[in-house]
Design a protein that fits this description.
The protein is mostly helical. It has nine helices and two strands; from the N terminus they run E-E-H-H-H-H-H-H-H-H-H.
Length: 174
């Protein structure tokens, strides 16, 4: 089954909406790992290097938030599953999408990371405002902040790979 996606994002009239039209067999368009193994391994390497030294729970929250913003059901399923297995609460997983309205559920450091995730993921909208960067820099030392940025970049890369190849949530061995 292939998916054709039609997006509307006229900020003056309504929030972004997605309509998915499904036809065909339901399989992914392309096995990216098999078709481009060096590129796939390079993204895995960047992802692993980015996570090094970051709190694993924080890393999953960043991946989940990026997946929300990019409408990537495959990655959202993967990272919420991983987070649950690591002991993350259902309450926090449900509230990542609206973290600004539920700040009491997230530490200041997590909120700073989520704000940076929002800004980098939506970089075309307003760049990364100084206030967002400064908030993150107040909670992460420079090497940690660089790894957080790399994690956000890989999260967005994985989202784009999954969406472009039409990967389906719940279809891997997790």
């Amino acid at each position: 089954m292939t998916t054709t996606e039609i997006k509307s994002n006229d900020r003056a009239t309504a929030p972004a909406t997605t309509v998915r039209l499904k036809t065909g067999s339901g399989t992914a368009r392309l096995d990216f790992a098999k078709a481009a193994p060096k590129a796939f391994r390079a993204v895995i390497g960047l992802d692993a290097a980015a996570r090094e030294g970051l709190d694993p729970a924080l890393a999953e929250l960043v991946q989940i938030r990026s997946s929300h913003l990019n409408h990537c059901a495959y990655c959202l399923h993967t990272h919420t599953t991983d987070a649950r297995r690591a002991g993350e609460s259902e309450e926090r997983l449900q509230m990542v999408a609206v973290w600004r309205e539920a700040p009491h559920l997230f530490t200041e450091k997590e909120q700073a990371a989520l704000a940076l995730t929002d800004a980098v993921t939506r970089i075309a909208d307003a760049g990364v405002p100084d206030a967002v960067h400064d908030r993150a820099a107040a909670h992460f030392d420079e090497p940690e902040l660089a790894r957080l940025l790399a994690l956000i970049l890989t999260a967005n890369t994985w989202n784009r790979i999954a969406l472009a190849t039409a990967k389906h949530a719940g279809t891997d061995e997790r």
